[in-house]
Design brief:
Layout lengths: L5 H17 L5 E5 L5 H9 L4 E6 L2 H14 L8 E2 L14 E5 L7 H14 L5 E6 L1 E3 L2 E2 L2 H13 L6 E2 H10 L2 E9 L3 E8 L2
Helix pairs in contact: 1-2, 2-3
GO molecular function, one term: methyltransferase activity
InterPro entries: DUF938, SAM-dependent_MTases_sf
Keywords: Methyltransferase, Transferase
């Protein structure tokens, strides 16, 4: 049941370094599309002041998250729950931050809209929406490998594809969130945070 992603092992420490800064005063995080569960287990272990709530739509992923959580045995890592970002209201209450890694490009644009709308409805003033993954900037890929990845995604499903950072930012702005910071990550990815306005 426990799935494994080499990419999750490679990027967890650079992401963690930024989460330590951004979430120093936070208490509860909702993770969207937790996937294998490796991030949830790692971040919960290294951010013990946070209550970490993993979620996913896929039953197999939820089983994998539960297996990683059982191995981690972190009291602040909550049992995973099923959550579809496009179905509102979300089955969670209260959070200081919403974290999502590598989801919006492997899903239709409606998922990005649902993610931002759901986060805006859930977060208090000052709460953070944090996204990790590949993005285009002004419609341009940041590396040839990202362009190749984008073509592969679209070949698998025309509704998928690397999203433009400006388009996601405009979506966040429309729903009451201002850009906080964009941090370059390994393998031509970005970690981006938006803060909900008062």
């Amino acid at each position: 049941m426990k799935r494994h992603s080499p990419a999750s092992e490679r990027n967890r420490d650079p992401i963690l370094a930024q989460l330590r800064r951004w979430l120093a005063d936070a208490k509860q995080v909702i993770e969207i599309a937790s996937g294998t569960g490796q991030h949830a287990a790692w971040f919960a272990r290294h951010l013990p002041h946070l209550s970490w709530q993993p979620t996913d739509t896929d039953a197999g992923a939820l089983d994998s998250v539960a297996a990683w959580a059982a191995e981690a045995a972190c009291p602040n890592l909550l049992p995973p729950i099923g959550l579809d970002v496009t179905r509102h209201p979300w089955p969670v209450t209260g959070a200081d931050a919403v974290f999502c890694a590598n989801m919006i490009h492997i899903a239709p644009w409606d998922a990005a809209i649902g993610l931002v709308e759901g986060a805006a409805a859930l977060l208090p003033a000052g709460g953070l929406l944090i996204l990790y993954g590949p993005f285009t900037i002004d419609g341009r890929h940041t590396a040839p490998s990202n362009q190749t990845f984008d073509l592969d995604l679209k070949a698998r499903n025309p509704a998928w594809g690397v999203r433009d950072l400006e388009a996601v930012g405009q979506l966040a702005q429309t729903h009451g969130m201002d850009h906080l910071e964009t941090v370059p990550m390994p393998a031509n990815n970005l970690l981006v945070a938006w803060r909900k306005r008062p």
